[in-house]
Amino acid sequence: MDTGPLESWNDGAAKRAIVEFVTSAAREGTPGFVPPADRIAVFDNDGTLWVEKPAPVQTAFVLGKLAARVRADPSLAGREPYRAVVDGDEAFFRALEAQDPGAVTLMVRALGYAWEGTTPEEYEAEAARYLASWRHERFGLPYTGLVYRPMLELFDYLRAHGWRLFVCSGGGRDFMRVFCEELWGLPRENVIGSAPEFAYRDGVPVRRAELHGPLALGPGKPEYVLARTGRLPCFAAGNDDVDVEMLQSARFALLVVHDDDVREYAYTDNAERARATAERSGWTTVSVKNDWNTVLTERPDQEVTRCHR
Amino acid sequence: MDTGPLESWNDGAAKRAIVEFVTSAAREGTPGFVPPADRIAVFDNDGTLWVEKPAPVQTAFVLGKLAARVRADPSLAGREPYRAVVDGDEAFFRALEAQDPGAVTLMVRALGYAWEGTTPEEYEAEAARYLASWRHERFGLPYTGLVYRPMLELFDYLRAHGWRLFVCSGGGRDFMRVFCEELWGLPRENVIGSAPEFAYRDGVPVRRAELHGPLALGPGKPEYVLARTGRLPCFAAGNDDVDVEMLQSARFALLVVHDDDVREYAYTDNAERARATAERSGWTTVSVKNDWNTVLTERPDQEVTRCHR
């Protein structure tokens, strides 16, 4: 078995299942063969490609934008989700984290409105400024260090076997497009997800408040993959309940299980349904603790952690 | 100048402008250099990549579907656009051909409704059956023979210089995705355009009546390119008025001018604004008559023409 590029993966059921699927897919004339055109692999981002605890990298960017809007227009502070943001309403944030449709819709509307009229360049500059100063509160790492090394190796392994890779996240397509080329080696067009429509003002595209298409969560994920690629995913990887439909639509489903509170985080929130479905459906599960001998792409820096606390 | 792959292009201003732009774009350190990530080239389809006269290949597919619906439910015959289809209302078809928003909206709604609940496999099978028996009424050629050979050579030339190619058409993304791999050598994900949303019924995606995003016409074209690729096009090619905004958004704009009524068709309809803008903006124009020494990928077959009339 050619497993050279998967060196951060321990020998075990997960690695063996991946290698068997990918090598069979490339072997014409076998039952596992996947024609090259169909070799579409799709990955969720937060919790699948990088650390999402204690909060996804994008969260403070979004909350900071809403807080800035309330500072500029205090009358907003009485309206949802601004009130919840200003008050730090825990119930709202729990609902949002659980990707409750009501809370998500309120947030998406507010964010659509917050960035309405912004050009892509302005949005990218805002996101880049935010990312440049962001540090993980426990590991002290910049966002670039939070990526799971085993997943980057999996990217390389799939690419080497003729797969086309996509990232599909509910968390905002254009935020990921700021770093996808540098971080994942993926061109922007291979990043799919919730995004606004654009309008033209004097020949310049600007963000509209409305979404272009549905939210890329739950059934929205396979819908985005189908819309973007003309196919359902053949290989899909995710880690929580809003990834279930995408994983169900794939021939090979990989579920990352966060069970390592030393090198990362151990948690089951928003993943109960995904784990139950994995067991019932025979998906391949990846234990961060047992299947990965290296987790992050950078070594947590205690110095930096102290500096930024 | 390396113009090897452009053998169907006569030496002239158009070929020279293309070669100069593409070779400069690949040369680091020159003002014409285009970083690899930005090398996005987008092509309109009907009239840019293949013959669109006397009617685009897709037209009879769409009209046949509407006629079948009226046969199944005669009460529809009194409603637009069914009435216009059944009556062969020329004013309606002229408005549709000119991509008049009112006529297009009526048609899009009817088509959304016509294919509502269809799975991607069912839609593809319908389109494939239609395409298999379709012949061009004048040239007797199947759809595969109507592609402009010079444009396929341009595809190869751009690819060889590190460009990523996309086709963006208002005429229905999923119809093009049935043949894009075979005809253009482009994966389905590189075909952009108007398309429906999908819903999930018992885990199976089915077409909804509503569009996913706006119509890919006029300003909708650069919007689709931006949404899909994260960038505006750097190189764009089109042939009529609904391509103007896409061409304006590009650094290099190519406008195909249909002026050869012997080997193809000579017409100016729906292209007046595009041609005026080309002149004003210094776009590169391609005269089918003068710039191409070969037009189609297959030789018109008079035998077949007679058989199918």
TrEMBL record, chains A, B:
Protein's UniProt name: Acid phosphatase
Signal peptide location: none
